[in-house]
Write a structure and sequence with these properties.
By secondary structure, the protein is an alpha/beta fold. The chain contains six helices and five strands, in the order αβαβαβαβαβα.
Length: 194
């Protein structure tokens, strides 16, 4: 729950225990802006703050589903300069993400990993109840492939953010969010599933 600002203090606490962690970040946006509306802490800036504080192992950060408009001619430059792997949404269109998740598992290794999932990674046809919807997003099946593809990783925490039920009269966004969070709980280490 909450907006993506909540991930910043969570990762501060996680890094205090585990040191810099890998990150599987599923989102329409990189959330690495420097400032928004004059503020350095905002739902579009948490991962820049995390980099600045050394909370992330930048060689083990992957951002999946990134898309949307930008004021910058190279909106992913900051991320790539940090060593992040950026997987734009168009690389996910019309394909299974199982091969990608095989690569992600190799990249993450056995070191601690955090999963941060912004519901706007999904196309607004499936999840309209969010504050910053972007067209041409992931499908629910792809979201499951990503989350289930994290099984076996050393997942030390996870979140699902940016669900805004008041923007979705159908209730589907909240239902989808709850199911994705349940799936994340199922991939935590030592959780047995049938």
């Amino acid at each position: 729950g909450g907006d993506h600002t909540i991930t910043y203090p969570i990762l501060q606490a996680v890094a205090e225990k585990h040191g810099p962690v890998g990150l599987v970040h599923v989102d329409a946006h990189t959330d690495t802006g420097d400032r928004a509306l004059g503020e350095k802490i905002y739902h579009g800036t948490p991962f820049r703050r995390c980099v600045e504080e050394g909370l992330l192992d930048c060689s083990r950060v992957v951002q999946i589903g990134i898309r949307g408009s930008s004021y910058d001619p190279d909106p992913y430059k900051y991320c790539r300069d940090q060593g992040f792997r950026v997987v734009p949404a168009e690389e996910c269109w019309r394909t299974s993400l199982l091969p990608l998740m095989g690569e992600v598992r190799k990249q993450m290794g056995d070191q601690p990993v955090y999963i941060s999932f912004d519901i706007d990674a999904l196309d607004p046809a499936y999840a309209p109840g969010t504050g910053t919807p972007e067209i041409a997003g992931l499908t629910p099946a792809q979201a499951l492939e990503i989350i289930r593809g994290c099984k076996g990783l050393n997942v030390v925490g996870c979140d699902l953010v940016e669900v805004a039920p008041m923007y979705d009269v159908s209730g589907n966004t909240a239902l989808l969010g709850a199911n994705l969070l349940f799936e994340m709980l199922c991939v935590l280490p030592r959780v047995t599933t049938v």
